[in-house]
Amino acid sequence: IEPNQTEKLNVHISTVGHDEMRVTWITEDDAPAVVEYGMTSGQYPFSATGTTTSYSYLALYRSGNIHDAVVGPLKPSTTYYYRCSSDPSREFSFRTPPASLPFTFVVVGDLGQTGWTKSTLQHIAAADYDMLLLPGDLSYADFLQPRWDSYGRLVEPLASARPWMVTEGNHEIERIPLLEPRAFKAYNARWRVPYDAGDSPSGSNLYYSFDVAGGMVHVVMLGSYAGFEAGTAQHEWLRGDLARIDRGRTPFVVALVHAPWYNSNKAHQGEGDDMRDAMEALLRAARVDAVFAGHVHAYERFTRVYGGMEDQCGPVYVTIGDGGNREGLADEYIDPQPKTSVFREASFGHGRLQVVNATHALWTWHRNDDDQPVVADQVWITSLASNPDCNNRAGAGAQA
């Protein structure tokens, strides 16, 4: 690093509204919270100034300066070149998501920072996509704060180039009674989500929603570790968020949550049941198409389910907590396999959801196989908004 320059760590981006992007980065020294950007490499005619925060943990660790600036308005499907804190030594670039379909999500949970993680990230980077969705358990820092820094460096090549939209897992809590009573301290400081943007602000960094593809897809990021019972802030917000969706212009709705609501693996049995009991009826009434979860370190896909039984108007449930964490795989399943469980396998990998048009999306799970991504499970998901049987019955349970 040259004199008077400060190393940039942990650069990552996330979408804000329909035409802005939040850039988050960390400097070891004082530096301006400024992002300069443009559509030509080396030329930055635009700039945005944001805010700077930091945090300490157990009086032993102090983070760097965590900067956060929102850039835009931006054009869709466009590559922007940018630099942080006016540092000429490192130029980054990102591509904005398209404003229409098709749209490709990568979905990967329980990522961690192991050799398995590196393989997963290489496989993700090997094929193009528009946005990454992560249903919790990011760094596995587990109270050791420098692990948050090393995780940020590991994911930076991908997370600085495409928006990463995340929600929290249990490994983000990091609460220690009396000593560190505030949960999610590092996560909230480092991974700011657009909870105050759009038409349905949640007021909490632990759950939020957003639209992509010009409103064709609505994504709901739920918080397994925030209050979720009827009457809680999250439950009330979710009810209002889902009620606002016009399925005539938003044919696909997907949700993410950390602890799975359906799970035939022996690991973490029943841990998502209370949340499912509190919220499942809201999702079915809104005809949510698919729910992606993590937590269990394996892959499993269920058919459309509601109330524990197959239901053509319920969501498809997928567990994808197999990104590569250091705890290893959960390879013991309950036998016999439930009729609602279509495919299950304890292997590391990642998923892709390609929303092709207003009626069809292709879900693919790629297994990490000898350092090659291999398609191991694939299914077409038809939008429930296009199913007349479900539209006719949509009111059932709407007041749940």
Describe the structure.
The structure is a single chain. With 400 residues, the chain is α+β, with helices and mostly antiparallel strands. It has 2 domains: 12-94, Purple acid phosphatase-like, N-terminal (Immunoglobulin-like, Sandwich); 99-390, Metallo-dependent phosphatases (Purple Acid Phosphatase, chain A, domain 2, 4-Layer Sandwich). It has 6 helices and 24 strands. The chain has helices at residues 115-125, 146-159, 185-190, 233-243, 273-285, 388-392, and strands at residues 8-16, 20-27, 34-38, 46-49, 51-53, 56-57, 61-62, 65-71, 79-84, 92-95, 103-107, 131-134, 164-166, 208-212, 217-221, 252-257, 290-293, 299-306, 309-310, 316-320, 341-345, 349-355, 360-369, 372-382. Helix 4 runs parallel beside helix 5 (273-285). It is globular. The model is unreliable at 1-5 and 393-400 (pLDDT under 50).
Compact summary:
This protein has six helices and 24 strands.
CATH superfamily of the largest domain: Metallo-dependent phosphatases
Largest sheet: 8 strands, mixed
Average residue-wise pLDDT:
95
Give the helix tally.
Answer: 6
Helix coverage percent: 10-25%
Give the termini distance in whole angstroms: 58 Å
Number of strands: 24
Which of globular, elongated, flat, extended, rod-shaped describes the shape? globular
Question: Low-confidence segments, ≥5 residues, pLDDT <50?
Answer: 1-5, 393-400
The CATH class of the largest domain, by name, is Alpha Beta
Could you say what the CATH topology of the largest domain is called? Purple Acid Phosphatase, chain A, domain 2
**Element order: H for helix, E for strand:** EEEEEEEEEEEHEHEHEEHEHEEEEEEEEH
The structure class reads alpha+beta
When the domains are counted, the total is 2
Radius of gyration (CA) equals: 20 Å
